[in-house]
Amino acid sequence: MINRLAYLFLLLATLALIRCTKDDPVGPSRDDFRYPLEPGSVWIYDRSINLDFHPRSGTRAADSIHATIRIEVIGEEMLFDTLATIKVREQVEQDATSLTNYNFYQNRDEALYLIAVVGGAVALPKKTTGVNHAFAPVFSARFDIISGLDGNLIPIAVDSLHLEKPAKVVLRYPLTAGVEWTYSEKNRPRRIKKRVLGDTEVNTPIGTFKAVKVQWIVDFDGDGEFDDNLDYIDFIADQGLVKRSFLIRNLPLLDDDGGNIGYYDYHDQSFLVSFTK
Q1: Do the Cβ atoms of 232 and 270 come closer than 8 Å?
Q2: N or C: where does the chain have the smaller number of CB atoms within 10 Å of the terminal CB?
Q3: Average of per-residue pLDDT across 52-56
């Protein structure tokens, strides 16, 4: 009898815990979560870009590019004497090249907004004798915007402040599964929506995090249709972005005459390797 009562008590306690967890979610899916942008916070990411070639004839070894990304919250800054923002410095280091830009955010109750940016970068598309990558759009060093494709980074003279009109919704609160919003329209820089997929756990070099998966839905080639060969996922934890995974499948590989000689996959991953606040 005592064993049966103990089992019943354990069952009821488990059901109550499950109900409380569902009603009051922990982690970034809870109602009061806001992206952590306290002054002095620093995130460092290890970024790897892999190009996996699978041409119809012959073999090319996979190419790899590695970079380090450092993001630091500088603090509050007033733009145009009236617009209160949070200034964030973002540095990308690849080989001997270092690029810095600044993003300005507002973290409101309903959303995290990108208000303005200063700086940027472009990519020089790789080219091997007789082989071209057919898909090499602009690379943006801004970590919250679309990442680019293969190429060596070169700085461009973009020192003036660019005001986003309208402000871009980086995250829509609360981060509940099924929430969806428009991030940017066509030609600004391209049509992008975001969607919250739900809770998950993420393994990183500095530990395991309870996170929310946020999907980027992108019309990368500008044909008016969202691309189904692209998987772009951010993993947001209480500590901020802990992982980003960006995969484009079956991109065309061309010869010097424009002929299709095969395809390649582009896989871009960033993992959090350090976080201080």
Answers
A1: no
A2: N
A3: 71
